[in-house]
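B., you asked whether I could sanity-check this one before it goes into the benchmark set. Here's the sequence:
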Amino acid sequence: MHEYIRELHYIVAIGNIPSILENGILCYELTSNMAHTSVALEEVQERRAKKRIPGGQLLHRYVNLYLNARNPMLFRLMKNVSEDLCILRIDKGVIEHLGVVLTDRNASSDYVTFYTLSESVGKLDVDRIYARYWKHDDQIEEWEHKSIICAEVLVPHSVTAKHIIGAYVTSEHSRESLLRAGFDREILINPDMFFNMQIQTKER
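And here's what the prediction gave me:
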């Protein structure tokens, strides 16, 4: 089932790693009163705050993992915070946990469909989700693809740290920051995941 899924992704500020290693990845609602660095886009979170999954809970009560973090959300973040980010690699086995929901596009979209694991078989546009780019000559097609490439796996409340199998970073500087934060899993320097946007690190 879903053989194409090798891992799941979570985009996060490296400064949050010590807390994540101790408490796991927590949903938006659980982190709202905790000191942390948010990479969430405010206008997106306003939409998500009002949305409830049919037969389930409010979106903010789920951890949102991406099938493919190389998406428009990350592209926007890279313009400002670049080396302060990492992409956590999550064991795909979490999709089999009780209450997990899969989406066929960004969960805040008006056109999203929510699925259980069994319901989602054959329903996700794999080619578009794992495409390298979402640009199209047709503007409507581009908007559609931008939403589809942000397909999510929604995990109720939290993802324990034991399910984190590694991380991607954009540079050696980011790797060193992640190590200083106490990260003890495999770290892969993969500029392509971050759209090759490497920033020259000043001497410190």
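One thing to flag: The first helix runs from residue 17 to 23. Otherwise nothing jumped out at me.
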